[in-house]
């Protein structure tokens, strides 16, 4: 594939950013063979797939970071509630101990 990349009559950006109908017109206007056109489209697919995969991984990593932060925040709130609960339990024990 690396050998073919150097022989492409179009830039990679143009191949990736051009929609298929326009790409077909460009390929036809350049007089490229069917095989060359298919190769260009295959290169386009591969590059697009890599981009989609990279974006998907970024979304997953962002979601993981967000969920980890939410978990940490919830653990902090839980810790505060446990402290309040312990404090109220001690007050309750002291009240029962004094009133009995």
List the helices and strands and how they pair.
Layout (H helix, E strand, L loop, with lengths): L1 H4 L6 H6 L2 H10 L4 H66 L1
Proportion of residues in extended strands:
under 5%
Total number of domains: 1
Low-confidence stretches: 1-6
Give the biggest beta sheet. Answer: none
Oligomer: single chain
**Coarse shape:** rod-shaped
- Number of H- or I-type helical stretches: 4
Q: What is the H/E string?
A: HHHH
Instruction: Calculate the terminal CA-CA distance, rounded to whole Å.
Output: 87 Å
Helicity level, as a percent range? Answer: over 70%
Overall average residue pLDDT: 89
SSE class: mainly alpha
Number of strands: 0
The value of Rg in angstroms is 31 Å
Can you describe what's shown?
By secondary structure, the protein is mainly α. The protein has one domain (2-99). The protein contains four helices and no strands. The longest helix has 66 residues, at 34-99. It is rod-shaped.
Quick recap of the structure?
The chain is mainly alpha-helical and 100 residues long. It has four helices and no strands.
Key structural traits:
disordered N terminus, rod-shaped, 100 residues, 0% strand, mainly alpha
């Amino acid at each position: 594939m690396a050998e073919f990349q150097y022989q492409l009559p179009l830039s990679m950006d143009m191949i990736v950013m051009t929609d298929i109908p326009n790409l077909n017109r460009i390929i036809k206007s350049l007089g490229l063979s069917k095989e060359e056109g298919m190769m260009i489209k295959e290169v386009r697919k591969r590059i697009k797939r890599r981009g989609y995969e990279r974006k998907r991984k970024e979304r997953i990593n962002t979601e993981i970071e967000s969920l980890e932060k939410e978990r940490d925040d919830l653990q902090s709130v839980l810790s505060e509630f446990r402290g309040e609960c312990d404090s109220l339990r001690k007050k309750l024990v002291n009240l029962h101990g004094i009133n009995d």
